[in-house]
Amino acid sequence: MQKLLITVLLCFAVILPSTLCDDSQQNISVQDLLTYNKWKLQHQKVYLNEDEQLYRQSVFLENLAKIKSHASDTEATYTVGLNQFSDYTQEEFKQRFLNINLSQRSTPLDVSGDQPRLLGAIATSIDWRTKPNVLNPIKDLGQCNANWAFGAVGVMEPFNSIKNGVLKKFSEQQLIECVHKAGFTSNGCQGGFLEDGINYAIKYGIVQSSSYPYTASTGIVKNCTITSPTSPSDGFYPQSFQKVAQNSLALKTALNLYPVAVQIDATNWSSYTGGIFNNCGSTTLQDLNLYAVAVGYDAQGNWIIRNSWGTTWGEKGYIRLAAGSTCGVLLNSFYITA
User: Fold this and answer.
1) Does residue 334 contact residue 113 with C-beta atoms inside 8 Å?
2) How many other C-beta atoms lie within 10 A of the C-beta of residue 237?
3) Which pLDDT belongs to residue 66?
């Protein structure tokens, strides 16, 4: 009775949107609203007007209810929680933060792949995060839908470090602004393909982010102020890369050499906070919508994936996927070879 009275009072006070004032939403508590206000302050959410704020609050409360429901599932292998995506519906999350799918390619995808060669036995487990001076801190692409550029940079940086002994930060912004103008399909913050980013760097080179800093600009970016490094010490020219065969042994072998770019179905990732994620179902090539970087696997074969959504998402920016081709992790992956 007390919860019902509080809900009615909040509705009349225009604190809750009308969609939350029906019988199905009367279990919303004052604590839920306090949680929303704390989350909004933590993530510095600012909305255009009151209507948008009320809508976002409604979505947040629905997502909060789903998070509570998941927490009660004793058989779940992963956890979910609040983060910067908690006021988006799943469809909005897909549209704003995931990539165009493979069906939009101008040319068919080459599904052939290489079985990498390794001198010696494959390690029982490997984690490039534990190796000194291989990986830069987790990055955050913000509102720019350019995970393709972050994925390309995400494998060029560790390859250059492992081969040349120097860990550099390369410029995603250069790829975002210059790749399309150089004649490739990818379109800046509107999405693209990791292969375009690497092929661009092979031809023109990629500079360090200190020379071309990230701005998280959205839309099709029309500026391109740098086309190549002014000196070899300023940037990097990869020479070649290779698609990995679509099996666990091939990906593990490649990971014993270098971190590997992977394209994945991240549709259900928005609220992930930890554990072994296994909630993707059957994934096809057309479902793949996010480029990330595989940085290892554990003794059980679970994949360690590095994302570019900042450290407030997942396990400080990482996600662990169940062994096998969970979320399509084996379908479209690449590693730098020279």
Assistant:
1) no
2) 15
3) 96
Give dist(CA 77, CA 70) in Å, integer: 11
pTM of the model: 0.88
Contacts of 229 (CB under 8 A, 6+ apart): 205, 206, 207, 235, 236, 237
Which residue in this structure is represented by tokens 């099709």? 220
Mean pLDDT of 140-162: 96
Give the other-Cβ count within 10 Å of 173's Cβ.
27
Gap between the Cα atoms of 335 and 262, Å rounded: 9
Going from the C-alpha of 207 to that of each of 48, 210, 220, 318, the distances in angstroms are 36, 8, 21, 26
Q: Under 8 Å CB-to-CB from 94, ≥6 apart: which residues?
A: 267, 289
Q: d(Cα 263, Cα 282) in Å, to the nearest integer?
A: 15
Tokens at residue 300, please?
């059980």
Residue 87's CB is within 10 A of a number of other CB atoms, namely: 24
Q: How many helices (H) and strands (E) does the chain have?
A: 8, 11
pLDDT band at 321 (very low <50, low <70, confident <90, very high): very high
Q: What is the pLDDT of residues 217-265, one digit of tens each?
A: 755 556 888 778 877 678 899 999 999 999 999 999 999 999 999 999 9
* Residue 336 DSSP code: E
Q: Give the C-alpha separation, 238 to 185, whole Å.
A: 20
Token pair of 151, please? 């994925």
Q: How many CB atoms lie within 10 A of CB 177?
A: 23
138 CB contacts (<8 Å, ≥6 apart)? 306, 307, 308, 310, 311, 316, 317, 318
